[in-house]
């Protein structure tokens, strides 16, 4: 990896460009409270966070990113609209890939803007696109909101829809749930026996786990209610698969999604938002006809993304993580806003990768 001094100089240059775009520089403590924040990150980040215990402060962690602390700061003290930038180290375990750094610098740009989300999405992406243009990176885009809308439109129970929404960021688990809820998957013998028993709590061995008998009984009740819920139809499963299968340049993707929306009208609003975003991107000079769009993109990233998502990759170096990534996270502001919310979108660049790929400060 490049020398640290060169990376820090590149970080300062990138942050300067964000400041020139109207962002206010902010800081975030390296040590963050873990109790609240760990629930907001995806499964991948939670498993890679450095967590420690403090007698006075409780569980703490080294910050794995800046977005969540910046949202906390904005929701507590920020004015509207607002643009922020930051630069500093983040920390993530890399046990599965020891070649990757567990400590590296991020530079970011975040917009909190209530009135024009499509314009804000386009502003962030176009700014990153322009700043990274000399590196010749491949841009990838997606929209988590389209899949969320598709799930919400299913003709099934609210409990099943909530389970599917919760596992959107875990593709294998999501697929397993679709197969189970549609009747494609065989019910395990142990569960079938449990549900068939007149009194499944009879003869229960002493409880030694974390769940009480009351919690176990409540869980059995939920399983029984689910067992008599009609299966998701084959047609609806096919429509979900059609959404997940959209992988085209943006213009063709939009056309394909509009076709799907004829049979799955629940996604119409999200598809209209995609159309508005593409118009806003084109107005900022982005060649949207050549811009890749994948409906599944972003499903293994941060769980707080709930709309537009993007990343920039070095096609000649597929072993590298994304040089930059980001997206929309409106729901996160609701979770941290204590009754308040504001649409928000942002992204981060890794200056170490910019330098490694030939960028210079």
Mean pLDDT: 87
Query: Number of DSSP helices?
Result: 15
Alpha-beta content class = alpha+beta
- Which second-level CATH architecture of the domain at 1-115 and 346-361 applies? 2-Layer Sandwich
The main sheet orders its strands as: 1-5-6-12-11-10-7-9-8
Task: Pick out the low-confidence regions.
Answer: none
What level of helicity do the residues show? 40-55%
Give me the CATH fold name of the domain at 1-115 and 346-361: BirA Bifunctional Protein, domain 2
Q: What percent of residues are in strands? A: 15-25%
- Count the strands? 12
* N-end to C-end Cα span: 16 Å
The coarse silhouette is globular
Biggest sheet statistics: 9 strands, mixed
- CATH superfamily grouping of the domain at 1-115 and 346-361: Bira Bifunctional Protein, Domain 2
Order of helices and strands: HEEHHEEHEEHEHHHHHHEHHEEEHEH
Determine and state the CATH class of the domain at 1-115 and 346-361. Alpha Beta
In short:
With 361 residues, the chain is α+β, with helices and mostly antiparallel strands. Helices cover 44% and strands 17% of the residues.
Descriptive overview:
The chain is 44% helix and 17% strand. It is an alpha+beta fold. Among the domains are: 1-115 and 346-361, Bira Bifunctional Protein, Domain 2 (BirA Bifunctional Protein, domain 2), CATH 3.30.930.10; 184-230, no CATH class. The protein has a nine-stranded mixed sheet with strand order 1-5-6-12-11-10-7-9-8, with helices on both faces. The mean pLDDT is 87. GO terms for molecular function: glycosyltransferase activity; histidine-tRNA ligase activity. It comes from Roseovarius aestuarii. This is Histidine--tRNA ligase. One of its GO terms (biological process) is histidyl-tRNA aminoacylation.
